[in-house]
Specification:
single chain, 290 residues, mainly alpha, 2 domains, 82% helix, 0% strand, globular
């Protein structure tokens, strides 16, 4: 999990550096772009605030201009929501994140043999960082109430699709059932299309895709983690029985719970990243054909 997160961070930094280089080569006003982004986070009833921030930016130069732009971004992110929809979605993600951390904490208390060294604590730190990132992402993208609600509903629907398709595909393991896996990328892409159509902009579709990715990933993780802790990792598959002999864990249940929780953590990250990417692609396609 640590290597996956490191790879995603490197990709994100590379994408950010590439974008910043393009802006510099085009002599773009980066502080102006930051303030414009912050203004876009504000709700419709606070549009005048965004215009005021953009207007006041012209009074600053040099370092003061950068400080003002970053201050506007921080203020826009931390500004309380007036819409019930935005507050509901943010509260739902926050509760789900706390519940996810609680399940993992219970797992470590119930099966202390899970801790095998520094790598375990590194994975836990990465997991906590992902949960915190989910809350921040949701806070940034839920300024518009309709988009927030669309993301929440779509995320719950996506979680249901992932669980149903996954159970069917893994239980039957037939060629026909594997084609069901094609539903997953199609459903993720559809979220971005719906968000862009309802919000009338590509940005709205991408925000809906981000919220749905966070909600779906958290919902699936909660189901998988709860099932693992309730059943003690059962049923044990042949691979687990074979690997347990050389794993060094005190008992098979501890090994199975550790293995399943680790898989759920990796899926939490990969599922959210893939869903957000496909949803953003759908939003771009919808805006081009609108």
């Amino acid at each position: 999990m640590g290597l996956i997160i490191l790879a995603l961070i490197v990709l994100a930094v590379a994408a950010g550096a590439y974008r910043a280089r393009r802006l510099r080569s085009a002599n773009a006003d980066i502080p102006g772009a930051i303030v414009g982004w912050a203004a876009g986070l504000l709700s419709v009833d606070r549009a005048e605030w965004g215009q005021a921030m953009l207007g006041e930016l012209g009074q600053y130069t040099g370092g003061a201009r950068w400080r003002y732009a970053l201050g506007c971004a921080v203020a826009a992110i931390g500004l309380p929501r007036r819409s019930r929809g935005g507050r509901l979605v943010l509260a739902s993600v926050l509760v789900a994140s706390i519940a996810s951390a609680g399940l993992v904490g219970y797992g470590f208390a119930r099966y202390p043999g899970i801790v095998t060294g520094a790598s375990t604590w590194l994975a836990l730190a990465a997991f906590a960082a992902v949960l915190a990132g989910f809350v921040v992402i949701t806070g940034v993208t839920t300024r518009q109430s309709p988009i927030a609600v669309i993301g929440l509903v779509s995320g719950c629907a996506l979680a249901g699709v992932w669980l149903v398709v996954g159970v069917v595909a893994l239980s039957t393991r037939s060629t026909a059932s594997m084609f069901l896996l094609l539903i997953l990328p199609l459903a993720s892409t559809a979220v971005g299309v719906i968000g862009a159509r309802r919000g009338h902009t590509r940005t709205a579709g991408r925000r809906a895709a981000l919220v749905s990715a966070v909600v779906a990933a958290l919902a699936v993780f909660l189901v998988l983690a709860a099932d693992t802790l309730i059943t003690g990792g059962r049923p044990y598959d042949a691979g687990q029985l074979q690997d347990f002999a050389t794993s060094g864990y005190p008992d098979l249940a501890t090994y199975a719970v550790s293995d399943n929780l680790g898989t759920a953590m990796v899926l939490l990250l990969l599922m959210s990243a893939a869903t957000a990417l496909l949803g953003s692609t759908g939003a771009s396609l919808a805006s081009r054909h609108s």
